[in-house]
Amino acid sequence: MKKGIKTAYQQGTKLRIAAPEYRNWLKRCILEELKSDLGHKGDITSNSLIGNEKAAADIISKEKGILAGAEELIFLASMFGIKIKMHKKDGMPIKDGSRIATLIGKAKTILRLERLMLNMLQRMSGIATATWNIIKKTKNKAAIAPTRKTLLRYLDKKAVYVAGGVTHRFGLFDAILIKDNHLNILKRKHKNYVEKAIEKACKSRKQARFIGIEVKNTKEALEAARIGAKVRRIPFILLLDNISAGEIRNIVNTLKEEMLRNNVLLEASGGITEKNAVAYAKAGVDVISIGSLTHSVKALDMGMEMR
Q1: Which residues contact 206 (CB under 8 A, 6 or more apart)?
Q2: Cβ-count burial of 62 within 10 angstroms (0-12 exposed, 13-18 middle, 19+ buried)?
Q3: Calpha distance 291→156 (Å, rounded)
Q4: What is d(CA 225, CA 260) in angstroms, rounded to the nearest whole number?
Q5: pLDDT of the chain along its 307 residues, tens only?
Q6: HEC secondary structure over 14-45
Q7: What would the 3-class secondary structure string for 81-111 be?
Q8: How far apart are CA 280 and CA 269, in angstroms?
Q9: Which range marks the domain in which residue 44 is found?
Q10: Contact 302, 121 (CB under 8 A)
Q11: What CATH number should be reported for the domain holding residue 64?
Q12: Which of 240, 201, 242, 198 has the alpha carbon at shortest distance from 221?
């Protein structure tokens, strides 16, 4: 992975239980989800039928894919005194019938946590599987990233990372990405609004992992790249938004002719799926960001069996 890509796009090491900020966020997320599920009455079914007996439960995969969420599952179980034995690790391939984990503890506690555990594992594994499928097809010609179109925020990002992708920015707070709506406002006052936007962004570069700007054609890309060549001490990115793979190939060639290609990172985004990702990877971009990885991904089917 190119140094600039890792600096700008990869924050996966922050998404580990050992990282206090992530651990605290995950704990709050778990407690909030569980509170919402239990309401004021709790699990009235289990409370009506089951006493304080202990039980064991296996989490079983019902289809093949890539596992993600194992570390989070261990953390969740530990929060409620459930012993857990993992049979698979994050990033490992699983198949229909794979036993992922065994839980031992109070039956009522396991049942209260069942849906939360499965929701997390199924979604994260679905994202990891989709990410891995695209990485396999594109053969690492470009890094694969999610967007901010997430449902479970850091869990979604972690799942992409587990499968070998990059995380991109976590939120509005960690990178400067100048999009068309920002430019629409600036152009009201400034004729040279692209230059003005990059100039203003550079003044805040100490707060950001990278500075990026959205462009929609070869002309805009060339103009932004010329101005961005002056950016120092921080990666500068051209976000090639909703541009065909063919035109992106022309943009790459034009930037090379102008001796500007090495000064920028190129990210392709907008309407990219597993079906057309290979064409974008071959076009010569550094990163492909795909919203469907997290906004409409299919969860991997799993179930819990008590015994």
Answers
A1: none
A2: middle
A3: 11
A4: 7
A5: 677 899 999 999 999 999 999 999 999 999 999 999 999 999 999 999 999 999 999 999 999 999 999 999 999 999 999 999 999 999 999 999 999 999 999 999 999 999 999 999 999 999 999 999 999 999 999 999 999 999 999 999 999 999 999 999 999 999 999 999 999 999 999 889 999 999 999 999 899 999 999 999 999 999 999 999 888 889 999 999 999 999 999 999 999 999 999 999 999 999 999 999 999 999 999 999 999 999 999 999 999 999 8
A6: HCCCCCHHHHHHHHHHHHHHHHHHHCCCCCHH
A7: CCEEEECCCCCCEECCCCEEEEEEEEHHHHH
A8: 9
A9: 3-132+299-306
A10: yes
A11: 3.90.1170.20
A12: 240
The residue type at 23: R
CATH code (residue 260): 3.20.20.70
